[in-house]
Design brief:
The structure is a homotetramer. Chain A is an alpha+beta fold and about 425 residues long. Chain A has 2 domains: about 290 residues, 3-Layer(aba) Sandwich (Aminopeptidase); about 120 residues, Alpha-Beta Plaits (2-Layer Sandwich). An 8-stranded mixed beta sheet of chain A has the order 1-2-6-3-7-18-8-17, sandwiched between helices. A 4-stranded antiparallel beta sheet of chain A has the order 12-14-10-15, with helices on one face. A two-stranded antiparallel sheet of chain A has the order 4-5. In chain A, a hairpin with a 5-residue loop joins strand 4 and strand 5. The radius of gyration of chain A is 23 Å and the shape is elongated. The first copy, chain A, starts with 5 loop residues before the first helix and ends with a helix. Chains in contact: A-B, A-C, A-D, B-C, B-D, C-D. At the C-D interface, strand 10, strand 11, helix 6, strand 12 and strand 13 of C face strand 10, strand 11, helix 6, strand 12 and strand 13 of D. Strand 12 of chain A pairs antiparallel with strand 12 of chain B, so a sheet runs across the interface. Chains A, B, C, D: Pfam families: M20_dimer, Peptidase_M20. Chains A, B, C, D: One of its GO terms (molecular function) is metal ion binding.
Chain lengths: ~425, ~425, ~425, ~425
């Protein structure tokens, strides 16, 4: 059994998890993280390569004839200040691409992904006689900016480590621990991030008539952008237009000369995507004209994620394996999510199927005396979401155990005959 | 004549101006500036005290019996990046009160004020036989944040350097060089700067429904604030409500948990001021409710300026002296300005009259071949205003000469019998 | 065959259609329409009752033993001015519930529904030997305001004409003629219409500061309402919030004392419906506070439609019959629509299944030389939608033929053994 | 004395006032009003001409040699529903230029102007021996739409009734009864009324993506227009941009194809006027582009008022006469008002001076037990303003008396030697 001995391994995995949680690093800056994980893979006996796609790590575990299974976890954290009061909470800071210092937190749970992958690999090493084939342990950087998978591919990933037969990955979600969630077909949205810079004319705060106020222009754009999803996208189509950042001005009595917005767009359909992006351009340009702006706005892409599609037949095979292993009550079909992922690029580049699933990480029963605790809301689907400063799993041990089991159970479809 | 020998002094004053322009410093950080000016005053033979109100400088020039005249210039610059292409343009940077590094520029012309004050003092020293009395040369820090005059007063200014009989000050403006502008009575507005923090609930950019979006809330507030001046203030009353800064969010796919606005309010009438401040509170609070904000907003003062009132009779005396010295064609009555000044606090504290006037600093004739140059617009009143990255005087020598002459001519009312 | 002789009947049905199209009537005012149809049903030999639910008509066609099938068409038109240039275009006017005169048009295609129902009944009469059972021909008033079905039920419909075994209905759509569209389960949205009245304080247009401007308040509400769908509803949930009417003020220099909005809300899920309605109330109330309104707003329901659910098994039976009759290429599965219908109330009240489907009414091939004609866009799904002043079917004869065939084919499931 | 016997005349004038108040008529529809007044003038012995400028009335009172003084009152009322609870309140209705029925009210106090003019004429007739010269009693229609004075001039007024030496007029205001208010120079604003029609694409309320929503477009324009006064007009310049009417849509589930706004602009300076009108056009056009409107908006003038300027020397003469007659405590200098008037056109056309003043019409002392009564606020300048449904004078007798006295006192400057 691939899971033999897992019980005894959980305490150690929980320590690894706490260490990773306490030391988060921003995208493409996962130096310490990569070093810790590479050492761990090497200690387990894998051939380890670091620096793949800047900070990525690949471990190869060969165990005789058979298919090659790629297991992938992502390593980067987010510029978020943790507010959950666990003893191992992050106090880390980092420097973002704009050169600004920022608190950093594993607010998207990549620490659980990495820990589960290490756990699965160590189980595979410990139970070599239970399987045959090859496992590629891929620790990808920079998932949050949609660039890490492509960076590893651009760094010769396929030539250096391929080919492989299937790619498997997973992501924690705001759901009860030990439960798994699968979605055949389109699972996660295409994402486009844009930087919009609008130009006014600066001046003294007391003399607005000598200026073109970029703050009012930016605010008007934000209000107008709401109409795209509300009025221009068909009600049964899915689109999200988020203005996640807005920045203009410094001093309270100096009207600035420009303002910057960061937009994030999510869509499931290429036509809707085109329509939304065109509407953004139309609105931004026209609002600048309404303001009498002296220069047209600039709209530049920051990054982008492709659609993530699960291969339907392979998803069904994984679902069957999960159901047999964990019972139908713990395996759920889920709907497409507006979140995004670059995991799919590995299998797309190799022309093989891939499956990506969610595992729950919260336990409302842990808060019997505090129904107001945000995590107590998980049963009603209102627990803190990814990227929230409160996104810290509660049921750590059962969460990690099930995540390791899920990777092993799915991989066994190919590795155990 | 107090102005004897001024012609020969202008080239040296222009060098001082260029040096000050090239080395601007933020409020209460005027270390180098204070050091340069203190040395200059000491070299001229004044008793010099530094560190008055943190970085302020006071020079005392005694010349026999007679009234004491306070001449004041302000020293601080602004967090603005200079774009005018003069060879002595600023490349300086500073660190603002939030700890953020920023370009710095004399975008409000305080460099001309300081240079003119040094020039006037040096003329008074050079022409000691032409006058009698005492001159207080006050180089004030932190005018831009409305705190420098109060800081000097709080540091015992009156006890240490008072009493005095009149306070005189001046400010450059976007008008033709050699022209002077006076306004009896209320001259500059009361200013209130506020920091507004609104709270939402953060989350992933793809899941707006799990959040309360503070960017949309802030944008809605900005749009709604426009209605105060447009609808709630009587058309013939004066009010300005500027949102000079807006900041929220960092990463393009993380909806932030809060947003911050910096507001600047200008009024000439205490009732209008109360009405405008109450409307701001009403709108900010209600917009937070409209957003379903989990916490009420916070509205905190950043700083404030009092009304600046010129003593009417003293202003008439100065006007008469200017008219006799420069001709009626160069002396103009001007209307109250929405800009603000803390100059008035010195005279208010001492219970004596004060006069503050504007002098022009631009020459459209310098751009005969470039009517599109922003400075070419000065004749039509559309030159770059104070706090603009283009606010650099063109006619430097005539501007400085007239500013020195104006100080000497006004001071002579008390010093020359 | 129920369709025997249909070819010869089409020209006469087209005349009936043109007559109905030329004489549209508003909801609950369908006097002429009811009279024309009642006469036609009587001429065909049915027992006819008029005035059911004010202007509704019920015809009973008994033909031996067997199930009772309810066939329903709706009769009312809309306050829209027709701009399509067919010779039989409407020049009718009516008086709306507010007492205002308005142009009237069959902009939702109820004229095709009525004509098809008459055609089907006349076919059943003409082919009595091909079926047995009872047909209830229900011509319902006031579908557009969601009140007609309930009015007929409140008028004793079930006691007077029931029971029945199944209810069948259909609606024209912007799709190619001869094609049919079915959706098992939830097919059409719940709709809630609300009247929002906001109060300001009126006054002279030149003195806004003496007023509370309800126009600005209403505009701010409209902009803020956009955020409900854009930010508060999950991206994969369906909701529509439309402000279909806004009215305030009369004279250009009198600021009015109030403003009125008419809202229309569409949802597929009761939780989403509650959330959206709560958000509307929250936003309207808070915006009134932001305006300093002297009185709170009033939010009153205008009307409402329930969800329309097609019985899944019955829908499959209809689909099978359609596919056999018209070929799989002409029968499509469609997705839930945000439009609304009160058709479902008949079957709900009777506790029997019902099915409602769409039939296409446009033919892009009719505009080979005019690709810019709005109807030429039907292939791309961008033809004029219902309630548009251009919503007039192009392929009248094939459209009517297929609509009659569809009713007969579906009814035959119960009537032909 | 021109005022001899005025005491006895007041009760009759109050009856006339109540009659006029109870029977208000819209602009250019002043048929009954003109008839009542013409009869009254004829009974007093004047030569009366009716139908001057459609419904205007001119009475000529000749009394020997001497100057000709034009006294003018305006006759029209407003489409406002009266809510003040006086027994003689208006229940009248009228039909506005759009053909819509509307309540009508003398909400701008023209009834007091007419009554005072009749009173003054009757006093002049009764005291013929106290003066000599000619009086033109001008009862002008359609002041509210800025068209009545021009219509009378276009109807040959100068040729038929001129020349004259001075034009005098007055307007009630929200101030204490018996007080008079004068303003030399520019007294009232230029007014421009505009009709803005924006075009979208109509459709079903449930399918916003098939439409271009003109309601959202109109709301966005309203919000954006607020920035003109708030940001583009210098704080010490005067401008008002009012959206007094907004209309779109009829049925709650039909998205309309267009929306209409009525704008009213007030300015005191031609440059500001140009700037504001240009900004309106810029914003309306750009917002339509932001909406993706299928047709550009239309902006059409409704009407316009010129600036009203009081001749400075003549105003001083009237002020001196008022001060002598009523005491300095009852004569006040007032500031320019943003309201508008076409009175000035008569004197402009004739090339003679004119003076227009305000008289108070309210008495807060009448509400000793009801400090919450809106009229009780007159002392603080917050009584209901003109065009409000509550604008009904409280102190009728003293108000009328002072208004008659004011006309006679001013006219006596020319008529009594």
């Amino acid at each position: 059994m691939l899971t033999s001995g897992l019980d005894d391994r959980i305490p150690d995995l929980e320590l690894l998890y706490r260490d990773l949680h306490e030391h988060p690093e921003l995208s493409f800056q996962e130096e310490r993280t990569a070093s810790v994980l590479a050492a761990r893979l090497a200690a387990a006996g894998l051939e380890v390569t670091t620096g793949v796609g800047k900070t990525g790590v690949v471990g190869v575990l060969r165990n005789g004839e058979g298919p090659t299974v790629l297991l992938r976890a992502d390593m980067d954290a987010l510029p978020v200040q943790e507010i959950e009061k666990v003893p191992y909470r992050s106090r880390a800071t980092g420097v973002d691409p704009d050169g600004v210092s920022t608190p950093v937190m594993h607010a998207c749970g990549h620490d659980t992904h990495m820990t589960a992958l290490i756990g699965a690999v160590e189980q595979l090493v410990a139970n070599r006689d239970a399987w045959s084939g090859t496992v590629l342990a891929v620790l990808q950087p920079a998932e949050e900016v949609g660039s890490g998978a492509q960076a590893m591919l651009d760094d010769g990933f396929l030539d250096r480590f391929g080919p492989f037969d299937v790619a498997l990955g997973q992501h924690i979600t705001s759901a009860p621990s030990t439960h798994l969630y699968l979605c055949p077909g389109v699972f996660m949205a295409a994402a486009d991030s844009l930087r919009v810079t609008v130009y006014g004319r600066g001046g003294h705060g007391s003399a607005p008539h000598t200026t073109v106020d970029p703050v009012v222009l930016a605010a008007s754009i934000v209000m107008r952008l709401q109409t795209i999803v509300a009025r221009e996208v068909a009600p049964n189509e899915v689109a999200v237009v988020t203005v996640a950042a807005i920045h203009a001005g410094r001093k309270e009595n100096v009207i600035p000369a420009s303002a910057e917005l960061k937009l994030n767009v999510r869509t499931f359909d290429p036509d809707v995507r085109e329509r939304v992006l065109a509407a953004i351009t139309r609105i931004v340009d026209a609002e600048a004209e309404a303001a009498g702006a002296p220069r047209p706005p600039e709209i530049a892409p920051i990054n982008g994620f492709p659609l993530l599609r699960n291969d339907v037949a392979t998803t069904e095979a994984v679902r069957a394996a999960f159901t047999e292993a964990f019972g139908a009550g713990h395996v759920h079909e889920t709907t497409p999510k507006t979140g995004s992922e670059d995991f799919g690029l590995f299998a797309e580049a190799a022309g093989v199927p891939s499956v990506f699933w969610n595992f729950g990480g919260f336990d409302p029963a842990l808060y019997p005396d505090d129904p107001a605790h945000p995590h107590a809301a998980v049963a009603s689907g209102r627990a803190p979401g990814g990227h929230s400063p409160e996104f810290v799993p509660t049921a750590v041990a059962p969460t990690l155990r099930r995540a390791v089991e899920a990777l092993l159970t799915a991989a066994a479809i190919w590795l155990v005959r």
